[in-house]
Design brief:
By secondary structure, the chain is of the alpha+beta class. The protein is 40% helix and 16% strand. The protein has a two-stranded antiparallel ribbon. It is extended and about 55 Å long. The two termini are 45 Å apart.
């Protein structure tokens, strides 16, 4: 990705639509990034995504809630932090 940054750029040199709301005489930081062109031959085509139905979403959430990852993420975080701290204190 190409990126150009200009610090202390005079706001008066910005196009009118970008100057809106910026005080006259102000200096700004301008960052310009070149967007990746996903249609370029070097990039693989993006897969087509079909919309997810409400029922598929419910099923997916139900499976996730039953997974160990979900149960671990919803355990008491204070208890987990205390256990980690105690582990380090006993070393």
């Amino acid at each position: 990705m190409n990126k150009t940054v200009r610090d202390h750029y005079p706001a008066s040199r910005l196009p009118a639509d970008l100057r809106d709301g910026i005080p006259e005489g102000a200096e700004v930081i301008v960052t310009v990034e070149v967007r990746e062109n996903r249609t370029h031959p070097g990039f693989p085509p993006e897969p087509e995504r079909k919309p997810v139905t409400a029922e598929e979403l419910r099923e997916s959430l139900t499976r996730f809630k039953q997974s160990p990852d979900f149960r671990e993420a919803t355990d008491d975080p204070v208890q987990r932090i205390r256990a980690l701290r105690d582990e380090w204190d006993h070393r």
